[in-house]
Specification:
Blueprint lengths: L24 E4 L2 E4 L7 H6 L4 E4 L7 H9 L3 E4 L14 H11 L7 E4 L5 H13 L4 H11 L5 H9 L4 E3 L26 E3 L2 H17 L2
Parallel strand pairs: 2-5, 3-4, 3-5, 6-7
Antiparallel strand pairs: 1-2
Organism: Choiromyces venosus 120613-1
Protein name: Protein-tyrosine phosphatase
GO molecular function, one term: phosphatase activity
Length: about 220
């Protein structure tokens, strides 16, 4: 599906009324998800004080949305998902890795992530995030179903086979492994997704702690 064309929005919004995008939700602190931003959503999105909008669509933001972003200094990032056939998930693992690289960068937030309907592509991207966060598979699928118009076995296969590698940025978000990570903010090697760090010194420290733990078991 292509990007919605630029046209007058058929809905008239009374003054003072703000309308969030379809399927809008708060994912984590300063991370939001939803559908394609339309003019009637701009006032609501402005209240979020966004720094970045990540578009997971065939085309970049249309003229109306792009103009609104430019006028407010919002960075626009576009990733065109390379979906397969109708029987395959509409997002590929390499694209999911690129998406996570942006989502996990603290300098990008507040960040709004969207596809066309805020459902399939965005849902798979968030499922990838939840797997990195060590969520249980039933919890990930349950969250996907809250926003999805459809759910197929290809979605389950996408999640099962997603193993990274995911690179943690130099300035990661503070919520990634909140309550799970060690005091340093780094995750012991217990994830089903291969994790690497943009700051190699951090990865070396994590590996050293893992080796020390393994040695105590001998």
């Amino acid at each position: 599906m292509s990007t919605p064309p630029v046209k007058d929005d058929p809905l008239s919004v009374p003054p003072g009324v703000v309308i969030p995008p379809l399927r809008f939700s708060v994912v984590e602190d300063k991370l939001y998800r939803g559908s394609y931003p339309r003019p009637l959503n701009f006032e609501f999105l402005e209240s979020l004080r966004l720094k970045t909008i990540l578009s997971l669509t065939e085309d970049p933001l249309n003229e109306a949305a792009a103009g609104w972003c430019w006028s407010r200094g919002i960075d626009m990032v576009h990733i065109c998902p390379e979906g397969g056939s109708k029987k395959e998930a509409p997002l590929r693992h390499p694209d999911a890795i690129k998406i996570l690289q942006i989502i996990l960068d603290n300098t990008r937030g507040p960040l709004y992530v969207h596809c066309l309907n805020g459902s399939e592509v965005t849902g798979l991207a968030m499922a990838s995030l939840r797997k990195v966060q060590l969520w249980a598979t039933p919890a990930i699928v349950s969250e996907m179903m809250r926003f999805s118009e459809t759910h197929s076995s290809s979605f389950d296969l996408f999640l099962e086979e997603f193993v990274g590698p995911v690179t943690i940025p130099k300035t990661p978000t503070n919520w990634l492994w909140q309550g799970i990570a060690e005091e340093t903010g780094f995750l012991p090697h217990i994830s089903k997704v291969h994790i690497q760090y943009e700051n190699n010194a951090h990865e070396h420290k994590s590996l050293a702690r893992t080796e020390a733990t393994d040695n105590t078991k001998v």
